[in-house]
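Why do we bother with a discrete structure alphabet at all? Because it lets us treat a fold like text: something you can write down, compare, and reason about line by line. To make this less abstract, here is a complete entry for Peroxisomal membrane protein 11B. Read it the way you would read a sentence in a foreign language you are learning: slowly, and without expecting to understand everything at once.
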Amino acid sequence: MNDTVDKLVIFLAKRDGIDKLVKTFQYVSKLVHWHAESTHPETAQRFKQWEVASGLSRKAFRSGRFLTGFNAIRRNPGSTPTFRFLAVLANAGEMVYFFFDHFLWLSRIGTLDAKLARRMSFISAFGEAFGYIFFIISDFISIKQGLEAERKLVALKEDDSKDVKESIRKIRADRVMRLMAVAANVADLIIAVADIEPNPFCNHAVTLGISGLVSAWAGWYRNWPN
């Protein structure tokens, strides 16, 4: 129990930890609002207010986050030309997303003209979707390379070797993390598409709610202390 509490404290001390918790509040409240809208309108309205407040607080808390993309390119550009190229595209898209998200937040709280909200939302979502596509491609390539490396290690027929076992364990752990990243990025891509090109599937409350929770919980898993 104490170990779990310690890990929770460490998790919530991170910017991403708080973001995933508030994101969970945001999309749970969206689903509750949808479910209760026709039968309990007052309760639904309270959860709608919680959803909006959570979304706005996340945007405020992400102030300056666009710089992390630049830092990621500067510190870890990729091990090969392919990965460097994908990293530049992915992080550039994410930088656009977080940068214009500042203006979206300011327009929604009334600091800037509210009419800017739709335009800022489109630009931010487009950058988000663009970046996630290349993050997903990069992760799939890494997963494929990991599978090939694992097969080679298994083919050595030295399963009892401590080094081989440790290498296989690291490859599998990395694969799980990358699959979580893919799940989160695909879910966020659906949410971005809902802003870019509204449609009945992506914009449905259930689709958005489930996508938001998949993204939040996959991110929760990736950021939870080992």
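What the structure line is telling us, in plain words: The mean pLDDT is 92. The chain is about 80% helix and 0% strand.
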